[in-house]
Design goal:
- There is one protein chain.
- With about 290 residues, this protein is mainly alpha-helical.
- It folds into 2 domains: about 20-160; about 170-293.
- The chain has 10 helices and no strands.
- Helix 1 runs antiparallel to helix 4 (about 80-120), helix 5 runs antiparallel to helix 8 and helix 7 (about 175-190) packs antiparallel against helix 10.
- The longest helix is centred in the last third of the chain and has 41 residues, at about 200-240.
- The N and C termini lie far apart (about 80 Å).
């Protein structure tokens, strides 16, 4: 009895599964590393790229509070040296987070595509394995959305570090000079812009920066909404072009189409809200200084 030798170039299911497993393992390892880097790396990076770091959150808040009071008391438009040091640190902090979050997003997209393609090719797998692939794909998709939000938020923070830093001020529990300064800022914002030439330069700087802060998010959210709409349309078209007998593929594309459409609506709401604040930032800034955030 003779046997036909197997060609050396043939790749069977075991080989394909091995390659798939190795790709997933590498992507998961990269994603884990980037998550740790997102948490650990920004502070030392910011400290090395600016005039100095801040040991912990409490020290950052204290330095910011003192610098903000000094800037207000100076009456100048130009940012005071102490406040500029804190802003430079905060800028580099957000740059580091934005870069790491963007890399993490790319890795998660690659991992998600790999998992969903594996699910579509999982004809030889049992129901339990297919359910595990679908669950993993759903988790990775959710993590990718969180990474996208992190990219947007940190680009916003890096573009307008002053407004981003304002959220670090102890607005609800101020004390000493800071409490008096915050009260004065609120009074001037309540009259803005009717006070005309009596408006302190610092208030004008904060209002302008706050407008830019929301303009960045409006642009980012609009861009993401357009991309999501495009993905939704592409997914529904692919579903329509898929053979009726391939129900799993049609179901996956329809799921992505519906998810993209719903997300585009949510992001569009964010874009509209930030556009409105960009056009008239003073009321929103006043609400913040009165503890509305």
């Amino acid at each position: 009895m003779t046997t036909t030798p197997r060609p050396t170039g043939t790749h069977g299911p075991a080989h394909t599964a091995g390659v798939s497993g190795r790709v997933c393992a590498v992507l998961v390892a990269l994603a884990t590393f980037l998550v740790l880097a997102f948490v650990i790396a920004p502070r030392p990076w910011a400290a090395s790229m600016s005039d100095g770091g801040f040991g912990d959150q409490r020290k950052l808040v204290d330095r910011l509070s003192d610098a903000f009071v000094d800037y207000w008391d100076s009456g100048d438009r130009d940012i005071s040296p102490d406040l500029k040091k804190v802003m430079d640190y905060w800028l580099q902090y957000h740059v580091a987070k934005a870069v790491v979050a963007a890399l993490l997003l790319l890795v998660l997209i690659a991992l998600g595509v790999h998992l969903w393609k594996s699910l579509l090719r999982a004809d030889g797998l049992g129901a339990g394995s297919r359910a595990a692939l679908a669950s993993a794909g759903g988790v990775v998709t959710a993590l990718a959305l969180f990474s996208l939000a992190a990219v947007m938020a940190n680009i916003q923070g890096a573009t307008a570090p002053l407004s981003s830093l304002l959220s670090m001020l102890p607005i609800r529990t101020p004390h000493g000079e800071l409490a008096a300064v915050l009260d004065q800022v609120g009074q001037h914002l309540a009259d803005y812009p009717s006070a005309g030439g009596r408006t302190p330069a610092a208030v004008e700087v904060m209002v302008g920066d706050f407008s830019r802060y929301h303009a960045v998010m409006a642009v980012a959210a609009t861009t993401v909404a357009v991309v999501l709409i495009g993905l939704s349309v592409a997914s529904w078209r692919k579903s329509a072009r898929t053979a009726a007998s391939d129900r799993r593929t049609r179901r996956v594309f329809r799921w992505f189409g519906l998810l993209s459409a719903l997300l585009s609506l949510a992001v569009a709401v964010v874009a509209v809200a930030n556009t409105a604040t960009t056009a008239d930032p003073a009321p929103a800034l006043l609400g913040f200084f009165r503890g509305g955030w």
